[in-house]
Amino acid sequence: MSIKIHSTELNRMLKTAVKCVDANDLAGKGNIEISHADNLLTIHATNGTFSAVVSAPVPGGDGESFCVDGSMFAKVCAQCAGEISISTDGKVCTVNGAGRTRLPVVCGTVPVQDTVDGKTIEMSGADFARCYEKVAYAVATEEGARVVLTGVRVEAEDGSGQVRMVALDGFQLAMEHAPCVVGKGSFREVIPGKFMKLVKDSVGQDDWLTIRCNGTRVDAETDGMRVSCAVLNNDYPDYERITPKSFAIKTLVNAGELRAALKSGSVINAGSKMVKLMVRKDTVTVSSNSEKADYEAEVECDTQGNDLLIAFNQNYLSNAIGAVDAEEIVMQFNSAVSPCVVSERDGDGAHLVLPVRVMG
């Protein structure tokens, strides 16, 4: 095999493929398989959990393929600029770009999952990224967390024209929507959060993304890329039951000013991470304290309902507010011990935070 390809295109392919190899595995899962046939260069990779097939048009090709260490091949190609020449004699792969590098060809092939045939969602890469990024903070990452909570619940109903993504970790819940096209029935799956991030990082803003699932595995595919993994156990918590249906207190507040107040208060409460909000008709008072200092700031608001003193983990509250992309946000409450829901003024997303009980 002897091919030439621009470094930008090759490194785009490797960016996805190398995330689907096990860099610490010497038994084959750290390898990628490179093949060239019918004017198409294709890279196969898998770590046993994630699988990738990435391709790009390259003239020529006789069906020849070879395997090399994926992480090392990616590191070598990342140093190259402009056109890269890749050749192999069956024993050694030679990369000419930033100098000449020779890598040993390894035996075997890389197994890749067949294309999934099942329920589908189609949407733009930009909409997928925006929606996922708004819920990613609520995906459970702590050691010992329930496996299903490390995923994102993805839902789309026939005729709705929208996909809903939900994430929760026991302390915070995030729910957002994005436009999509639904095919082959309603889509309701829990997809690993790490896989969702892989898709987001691999798909261009202008790409058209197709997500397919057969109840066991999920594919995410664009023109020239397909990644696959197993879905999680679908025994997902009933998040609709967790979310209050009505609220006694509703306040409209400037998001930027509230974020700034929380950020300033975090400087002194690094130990406890607790912040208090005193919600009144015209102001929200943000306060925090430690053994060394006290902090207080007032932010103007427009509140309907009674006054309320409520406390939160500062990080969780900041996550919820930061996920709402609006100049003004709505915060809704029932009591000092029930969830607070943060949302846009007219949006259909919701970001729920559990309060902290304050002794005394």
Structural description of this entry:
This protein is an alpha+beta fold. It folds into 3 domains: 2-104, DNA Polymerase III, Chain A, domain 2; 119-240, DNA Polymerase III, subunit A, domain 2 (DNA Polymerase III, Chain A, domain 2); 243-353, Roll (DNA Polymerase III, Chain A, domain 2). It has helices spanning 7-17, 70-78, 125-135, 193-202, 239-242, 255-266, 314-322; strands at residues 2-6, 31-37, 40-46, 51-57, 62-69, 83-88, 92-97, 99-104, 119-124, 151-156, 162-168, 172-179, 181-183, 187-192, 208-213, 217-222, 225-230, 249-254, 274-279, 283-289, 294-304, 308-313, 328-333, 340-344, 350-353. Strand 3 and strand 4 (51-57) form a beta hairpin. The chain is elongated. The mean pLDDT is 91.
What's the layout of helices and strands?
Elements: E1 2-6, H1 7-17, E2 31-37, E3 40-46, E4 51-57, E5 62-69, H2 70-78, E6 83-88, E7 92-97, E8 99-104, E9 119-124, H3 125-135, E10 151-156, E11 162-168, E12 172-179, E13 181-183, E14 187-192, H4 193-202, E15 208-213, E16 217-222, E17 225-230, H5 239-242, E18 249-254, H6 255-266, E19 274-279, E20 283-289, E21 294-304, E22 308-313, H7 314-322, E23 328-333, E24 340-344, E25 350-353
Antiparallel strand pairs: 1-6, 2-3, 2-5, 3-4, 4-17, 6-7, 7-8, 9-13, 9-15, 10-11, 10-14, 11-12, 12-25, 15-16, 16-17, 18-21, 18-23, 19-20, 19-22, 20-21, 23-24, 24-25
Write a concise keyword list for the protein shown above.
DNA Polymerase III, Chain A, domain 2; 3 domains; 7 helices; alpha+beta; 360 residues; nine-stranded antiparallel β-sheet; twelve-stranded antiparallel β-sheet
